[in-house]
Amino acid sequence: MGLKIKKISGGYVGNSVLKNVSFEVADGEIVALIGLNGAGKSTTINHIIGELHPQQGTIMLNDVYLSQAPTAFKSQIAYIPEQPILYDELTLEEHLHLMLSAHMIDNTVTWSRAFELLKLFRLEDKLHWLPTHFSKGMRQKVMLVAAFMLDAPLLIVDEPFLGLDTLAQKDVVRLIREQAKKGNSVLMTTHLLASAAKFVDKFIVLHEGTVQFIGTPLALADAHGLTLDNLDDFFDLMHETINDEN
Ligand SMILES: Nc1ncnc2c1ncn2[C@@H]1O[C@H](COP(=O)(O)OP(=O)(O)OP(=O)(O)O)[C@@H](O)[C@H]1O
After folding, report:
1. Do the beta carbons of residue 84 and residue 142 sit within 8 Å?
2. 3-class DSSP state of 223
3. In the UniProt record, does the keyword ATP-binding occur (predicted)?
4. DSSP state of 29
5. Where are the domains of the chain?
6. How far away, in angstroms, is 121 Cα from ligand 1 center?
C-alpha cells in the first residue's frame, strides 16, 4: 500500500506553491524528492505531516486518508526534520518518552531498539542531558534515535546527511536501508544526488511546485546524458535550462 499523493495543490496563505503533485512511495521503497532551492520539497513534506492543508488533492498512507483520520495517519509517520526540534527543558530520555507517548507505544522491544541506537550514536550515557549540552551533530542524532526507534510505516527524512560526520552518514544510510527491508516506506529530500543514487529506488524531481520526473537514478542520469557518478551535475543542467528559458 504505502504513501499515495494524488493531485495535491497547496502551499501557504497568499503563496500557492504545489501544482497537481502526484506520486507514490510503495512499501519497502526509498524515494528521494529532489529539486533546486524553493522547488517545493519542504512544502510537500509539510503537507504530508499535516502542518499544511492542501487546497486540492488527497494524501493517503496505508489506506488512511490524512483529511479523514489525521491522528491515525500521523501515528504512522516518523519524521526527521532538517533542523532538530528539541525542548530545552526536557532531557534526552524525556524526549524519547514524549515521542513514544505521541505514537502511543511504550514497550520493551521499542526501548531495546532505542538503546541500540543510543549506543550506535554514542549517546547511551547521556540520557539525562539537556539539549543545551549537545553539539549540533548530537542534536541531530537525538532526532535520529527518536525517529528510527519507532519503526514507523513511513519514515520521512529531510536532508539526512546535514551536519553529520561521515561515520554517522554511513550509519544513517544503513538504518534507512533496514527500514525499507522491514517493508516500511522512506521518503527523503537531498541535494547530494550521487550519494543518494547508491541507495534510493526512485528520484522525484520537483521544479516550481510541479513534478517533472519520476524514475530510477539510472533513468534520471540517462535522461540527461549523465552517469551515476556525476549525477550531482544534474543541478547545473537545471540551472542552465532555466537561464536559457529566461
Ligand atoms: N512559510 C512560508 N510562507 C510563504 N511561502 C513560503 C514559506 N515557506 C516556503 N515558502 C515558499 O514556498 C516555495 C517552496 O519552498 P520550499 O521550502 O518548499 O522549497 P524547497 O524545495 O524545500 O527548498 P530548499 O532546497 O531551499 O529547502 C518557495 O517559493 C518559498 O519561498
Report:
1. yes
2. helix
3. yes
4. -
5. 1-76+153-172+181-246, 85-151
6. 31
Residue whose Cα lies nearest atom 28 of ligand 1: it is 38
Tell me the three cell numbers of residue 223: 535522461
Report the C-alpha gap between 155 and 148 in whole angstroms.
Answer: 8
Q: Identify the CATH number of the domain defined by range 1-76+153-172+181-246.
A: 3.40.50.300
Please give the number of the atom of ligand 1 that sits closest to the Cα of 14.
4
What ipTM did this prediction achieve? 0.97
Closest protein CA for atom 30 of ligand 1: 38
pLDDT in tens, 14-28: 899 999 999 999 999
Residue nearest to atom 3 of ligand 1 (CA): 12
Are the C-beta atoms of 151 and 112 separated by less than 8 Å? Answer: no
Intra-chain end-to-end CA distance of the chain, in Å: 41
Using the mean position of ligand 1's atoms as its centre, give its distance from the Cα of residue 149 in Å: 29
Residue 97 to residues 42, 103, 111, 150, Cα–Cα distance (Å): 27, 10, 10, 11
3-state secondary structure of 20: strand
Give the residue whose CA is nearest to atom 1 of ligand 1: 12
Residue 235: closest CA among 22, 38, 19: 38
